[in-house]
Amino acid sequence: QEVTALLRNALAADSLQLYFQPQIDLKNGEIYSCEALLRCFDGSSQPVSPSIFIPIAEKSGLINRIGDWVIENACRQLKAWQGTALEKIRVDVNLSGRQLTNQHLADYILQTLYDHDLSPSQLGVELTENEVIGVEGEQIRQLKILKQAGVHISIDDFGTGYSSLVYLRNLPVCSLKIDRNFLHHAMENDSDMAILQAIITVGHCLGLTVVVEGVETADQDSLVKDLNCDLAQGFLHARPMPANEMPLFLADRG
Ligand code: G
Ligand code: G
Ligand code: MN
Ligand code: NA
């Protein structure tokens, strides 16, 4: 109840904010994409974590309004970056499974991109494995419309859901984002290392881009390079940051 009231107020008072975390291309160190992560400021110095308020928003149905806010504001930010060093960057937003049950979602996303003079290839959506496992019919149709238009589609937290890979065959997917626990365990345990390697191989065999999350140390970074991963996301390279810190972050990397 409390969190729901907080979110309603946040939507009204504009105390929601998107942070952005760059993804590093491991072949050349360049940044072509970043993940948008929602923050809710309630007046205290630290924002409320989405891992607290997103599940509550999903239950109350408020997630659809919040999801629209995220899409709208990702597009606004992309538009603001046009004409700067960030004009080519892609922003990936997290979607809740519940948003996919709205049959106007794909239309809404494409219309919002169009309204901001953006190409669909500048936006991506991330869905967790657990959220896409049960999707069927109408939801797959929505994802297909998005992918056909050029929107990038990623499976998030890959490896934490059911182990069946069959669903990947039926889904229009571009990237797999391997959950950070696999990387962290692989550093300590040979079986986990084997699993991580196998996931990367499966991703590549299916023609997908493989992103590893949670890269925190130089050792982890060289491991993911050795394992032929495509992209790395993690605190070693960058923490999620407000939009206005992104230009400086890029400039500092040279
Ligand atoms: O940024 P952080 O690690 O605190 O995020 C915690 C969780 O909240 C992650 O699982 C992330 O995917 C989720 N999350 C962050 N922003 C959004 C959002 O805009 N929409 C949805 N549905 N989930 C989000
Ligand atoms: O579930 P999802 O992958 O969307 O969650 C992304 C979350 O992971 C973000 O909220 C971000 O704060 C967090 N995150 C990003 N990089 C790292 C990292 O290197 N280590 C840890 N522990 N968390 C990270
Ligand atoms: Mn994500
Ligand atoms: Na993830």
Task: Explain how this protein is built.
This protein is globular. Helix 9 (180-186) packs across helix 10 (190-205). The protein starts with a helix and ends with a helix. The chain has an eight-stranded mixed beta barrel, surrounded by five helices. The chain is α/β, with parallel strands linked by helices and 254 residues long. The chain has helices at residues 2-13, 50-60, 63-81, 97-100, 105-115, 129-133, 137-149, 166-170, 180-186, 190-205, 218-226, 246-252; strands at 16-25, 31-40, 90-94, 123-128, 152-158, 175-178, 209-213, 231-233, 241-242. It has a single domain (2-252), classed as TIM Barrel (Alpha-Beta Barrel). The chain binds guanosine-5'-monophosphate (G) (2 copies), manganese (II) ion and sodium ion. Residues 156-157, 177, 179, 213 line the site of sodium ion. One guanosine-5'-monophosphate is lined by residues 37-38, 49-51, 54, 70, 93-94, 96, 240.
Layout: helices, strands, pairs:
Blueprint: H1 2-13, E1 16-25, E2 31-40, H2 50-60, H3 63-81, E3 90-94, H4 97-100, H5 105-115, E4 123-128, H6 129-133, H7 137-149, E5 152-158, H8 166-170, E6 175-178, H9 180-186, H10 190-205, E7 209-213, H11 218-226, E8 231-233, E9 241-242, H12 246-252
Parallel strand pairs: 2-3, 3-4, 4-5, 5-6, 6-7, 7-8
Antiparallel strand pairs: 1-2, 1-8, 1-9
Helix pairs in contact: 3-5, 5-7, 9-10
One guanosine-5'-monophosphate binds near residues 38 and 54.
